[in-house]
Amino acid sequence: DTGVSQDPRHKITKRGQNVTFRCDPISEHNRLYWYRQTLGQGPEFLTYFQNEAQLEKSRLLSDRFSAERPKGSFSTLEIQRTEQGDSAMYLCASSLALAGEQFFGPGTRLTVL
Amino acid sequence: GNSVTQMEGPVTLSEEAFLTINCTYTATGYPSLFWYVQYPGEGLQLLLKATKADDKGSNKGFEATYRKETTSFHLEKGSVQVSDSAVYFCALSDSGGGADGLTFGKGTHLIIQP
């Protein structure tokens, strides 16, 4: 399967714990995006990378959220000191710069107890 | 800021009925417009797109026309099938082609009954 993959698919954690999610984009794609989707809502854009450079991070929800893409391939999204309001589906997408179409992964569902 | 408004669901239709899902947007400049679809148990997939005014995007029998004068991008299909049951999201991007972050509507759940 050469699509976007995300790991884990489900994560249950207790409030106050840190969590990290991984995204592996389609191999030739140089742009990688993170979104959050809560129940009954559309995806909400968080941040994106072109290669290893994070081009937009002002939309990250708070300073508890951070993302990295150290070698321009896979990316990680970390949430520190999780809160119940962080419970959501976290989606990753990738694309070729300027080509536009974003290909989405299956998402990681986070539940904070 | 940018926003997308689409009709509330669920929308329930019989097979072979005509479908319209309304989508209107607010954006600065000249956005690109998209419809994404999420089938049960699957990830989001691009259904169709239009990058400038009066463009018509089409795919799998679905069509949508970029109407700048009414800031709309309504999704239509002449004859729906049970397999079209899914959640449909309208989205926009400020950049040409959607290379930057997308702004999504809330989604419309479509249910097609045999």
Which features characterize this protein?
heterodimer; A: 113 residues; mainly beta; seven-stranded mixed beta sheet; four-stranded antiparallel beta sheet; globular; B: mainly beta; six-stranded mixed beta sheet
Structural class of chain A: mainly beta
In helices, the fraction of residues of chain A equals under 10%
Order of helices and strands of chain A: EEEEEEEEEEE
Q: Which percent band covers the strand fraction of chain B?
A: over 45%
Strand content of chain A: over 45%
What integer is the average pLDDT of chain B?
A: 92
Largest sheet of chain B: 6 strands, mixed
**C-alpha-based Rg of chain B, rounded:** 13 Å
Distance between the termini of chain A: 33 Å
Total E-strand runs of chain A: 11
**Broad shape of chain A:** globular
Q: Determine the most extensive contact between two protein chains.
A: A-B, 30 and 25 residues
Number of helices of chain A: 0
The dominant shape of chain B is globular
Low-confidence stretches of chain B: none
Tell me the total number of β-strands of chain B: 12
Helices and strands in order:
The complex is a heterodimer of chains A (113) and B (114).
Chain A: E1 5-7, E2 10-13, E3 19-24, E4 31-37, E5 44-50, E6 53-56, E7 65-68, E8 75-79, E9 88-95, E10 103-104, E11 108-112
Chain B: E1 3-6, E2 11-14, E3 19-21, E4 23-26, E5 32-38, E6 45-50, E7 56-59, E8 62-65, E9 75-77, E10 86-93, E11 103-104, E12 108-113
Parallel strand pairs in B: 2-12
Antiparallel strand pairs in B: 1-4, 3-9, 5-6, 5-10, 7-8, 8-9, 10-11, 10-12
Q: Could you walk me through the main structural features you see in this protein, from its secondary elements to its overall organization?
A:
- The complex is a heterodimer of chains A (113) and B (114).
- By secondary structure, chain A is mainly beta.
- Helix content of chain A is 0%, strand content 49%.
- Chain A has strands spanning 5-7, 10-13, 19-24, 31-37, 44-50, 53-56, 65-68, 75-79, 88-95, 103-104, 108-112.
- In chain A, strand 9 and strand 10 (103-104) form a beta hairpin.
- Chain B has 114 residues and is mainly β.
- Chain B is 0% helix and 48% strand.
- Chain B has strands at 3-6, 11-14, 19-21, 23-26, 32-38, 45-50, 56-59, 62-65, 75-77, 86-93, 103-104, 108-113.
- In chain B, strands 2, 5, 6, 10, 11 and 12 form a 6-stranded mixed sheet that branches.
- In chain B, strand 5 and strand 6 form a beta hairpin.
- The mean pLDDT of chain B is 92.
- The chains are: A mainly beta (113), B mainly beta (114).
